[in-house]
Structures are given as structure tokens and as C-alpha cells.
Amino acid sequence: MDIKFNSVKSQLITFAGENPNQCAVTLIGTPIPWVTKVKYLGVYLFSKSGFIDISDACRKFYGQFNNILSVLDKC
């Protein structure tokens, strides 16, 4: 089983420090960008602070939960 990386969907991030400006990483000739936040399993991870933002996931959960409640109210 081979792992295939998509250079368009790939990002580089460092935690608890600055992203190195002088370090360039390429994948099959395509440069991989350095970012300050990355979305992983629906949660945003921030590089400098290590902060985790779950507000998007909570908003989706409450929206779906309210949809279920409204359907149950009609029964």
C-alpha cells in the first residue's frame, strides 16, 4: 500500500515558534506553503500560540442537534 501526497492539499506548520522563512520544502517540484493555522479533523490549530479553535465544530454540532430536535417535535 503506497501513500500518495497531494502537494496542493499539503501545508507546513510549526508549533510554539516562528515558521522558518529560509526553509523551502517542495513535493514533486511544487512548493509547500508555510501557514499559521491548519484545519485538522474539523478543528483549527494555531502555530504560535498552540491554541485550538473548536467553535466551527461546536456550531455545526448545535445546528445538527437543533435540526434533530425540530424533527422530533413534529412527531
- The unreliable regions are none
Strand content: 15-25%
Which geometry do the CA atoms define? elongated
The string of secondary-structure elements, in order, is EEEEEH
* Major sheet characteristics: 3 strands, antiparallel
How far apart, in Å, are the first and last alpha carbons? 48 Å
Helix content: 25-40%
Supply the helix-strand structural class: alpha+beta
Structure report:
- With 75 residues, the chain is of the alpha+beta class.
- The chain has one domain.
- The protein has 1 helix and 5 strands; from the N terminus they run βββββα.
- The strands form 2 sheets. A 3-stranded antiparallel β-sheet has the order 3-4-5. It has a two-stranded antiparallel ribbon with strand order 1-2.
- A hairpin with a 2-residue loop joins strand 3 and strand 4 (43-46).
- The mean pLDDT is 82.
Features of the shown structure:
alpha+beta, 75 residues, 25% helix, 1 helix
TL;DR of this structure?
By secondary structure, the protein is of the alpha+beta class. It has one helix spanning 55-73; strands at residues 25-27, 30-32, 37-40, 43-46, 52-53.
Per-chain topology:
Layout: E1 25-27, E2 30-32, E3 37-40, E4 43-46, E5 52-53, H1 55-73
Antiparallel strand pairs: 1-2, 3-4, 4-5
